[in-house]
Amino acid sequence: MTTFRDLQLSDVLLQGLQDLGYTSPTPIQEQAIPLLLKGSDVAGQAETGSGKTAAFGLPLLARVNPELQQVQALVIVPTRELAVQVRQELKQYARHIPNLKISAFYGGHSYRIEEDSLVHPPQILVGTPGRLTDHLGRRTLDLRHAKQVVLDEADKLLEMGFEEELDTLMRALPRERQTILFSATMSGDVKELITESLRAPEFVQATATSVPDRIRYIGVQVPDEQKRDALVRVLESIPHAGTVVFVNARLTTEEVAHHLQEYGFAAKALHGKLEQRERDKTMTLFRNGTAAILVATDLAARGLDIDKLETIIHLELPYDEAAYLHRSGRTGRAGRSGTVYSLVNQREAQKLEQWPEVQVDNWLEPSNLKAAKKSAATEAPVFTTLHISGGRKDKLSPRDIVGALIAEAGMNATEIGKIEIQDFHSFVAVPEAAASKAVAKLNGAKIKGKKYKVSLVR
């Protein structure tokens, strides 16, 4: 079995991978990393969850010079969520590299913060096309030293209409550079982008348009008018915390989330029309377990980092097989198992069986699911989330927050749930019964010598 040491990575990168518990590379990493380390342009086809961020990220980190305070590597991604995720992953891999700065620029983020960051530029910049071209137009971003560029989720970049922005960015980069492209699908448009942007590329592939064997597929054939009732019955029959329910339209997410709330489930809706702040809050609540179920459009199928997601439910089938596989690929990641339920009418069942990469392991009869009872389904959420008006820029750490909850609110460390530190905000999950007391106590105390506003996240 190949190890990361076999790939000739530096000791500082190997130490970071060891800290994360990573020992063996995924297939896409094993193929791509040696090619990228020797400087080749690479075009890779890889699904979400295949480890592609490390596949391009580790070679980027290996080749940048921490002593040169200029943008040396640019990672272009389609969404704000993916920008944040990629930056975080790269920072984890680079934890033992001193003087290395990694930034993420995206819509909805403060221009002033980004411009201040560029006074001492990051060596690696992750960003969305619109925001990056805005900085070029303002002459705040200098890409003359960028020797590496990554086009991540290239099919999504093109699908979202970023061709003009990509052209602008590629023209602003040095002609002598390494170009790396990853895409889940290889459509004609993606192949054209490869031809235009990469020089003599090496091609790598990891299970194109397929999902790992560790995912189990279950089908439930049910008429459209009975689907929401069947959804409740499925959720009642499984450990449902950390489940994503996929639908096709924004309004449907709200309707289904409300329907599940009536049955006692802690469900939240996620769609593209939510303001960025609300999307961020919803994802925080889902990641820390306060919201057990996420009802989402395909916005959540790509680029959102959801740990230990075990169950996907397709309440509505997407329009094609590739979208179905993208959704399903959110589970069964990093060696873990997952289950995918598809609630389909007769026509959709036939459609599902015609998709060659989808093999339903088991069909459940709706009659085998227990009847749903309104407001009697599940217990109320165990955790409530607290918001603290300080974060990474205030030098707050999870240890500081745990210490304050123990010292001021009288909580035990074992009671405290997941803590998420952002640049200017922090979130912590605490037992619902202790939440009000914790808010009152922390508002009257100091965390790391400073007072912060603490409130419940609704």
Automatic annotation (TrEMBL):
Keyword annotations of the record: ATP-binding, Helicase, Hydrolase, Nucleotide-binding
Domain of life: Bacteria
Gene3D superfamilies: 3.30.70.330, P-loop containing nucleotide triphosphate hydrolases
All residue ranges annotated as the Helicase C-terminal domain in the record: 230-375
Residue span(s) of domain Helicase ATP-binding: 33-204
InterPro entries: DbpA/CsdA_RNA-bd_dom (IPR005580), DEAD/DEAH_box_helicase_dom (IPR011545), DEAD/DEAH_RhlB (IPR044742), DEAD_box_RNA_helicase (IPR050079), Helicase_ATP-bd (IPR014001), Helicase_C-like (IPR001650), Nucleotide-bd_a/b_plait_sf (IPR012677), P-loop_NTPase (IPR027417)
Motif Q motif: chain residues: 2-30
GO MF terms, alphabetically ordered: ATP binding; hydrolase activity; nucleic acid binding; RNA helicase activity
GO cellular component: cytosol
Pfam families cross-referenced by the UniProt entry: DbpA, DEAD, Helicase_C
Domain DEAD-box RNA helicase Q span(s) in chain numbering: 2-30
UniProt similarity note: Belongs to the DEAD box helicase family.
Classification via PANTHER family: ATP-DEPENDENT RNA HELICASE DBPA, ATP-DEPENDENT RNA HELICASE RHLE-RELATED
Record protein name field: ATP-dependent RNA helicase DbpA
Native source species: Pontibacter akesuensis
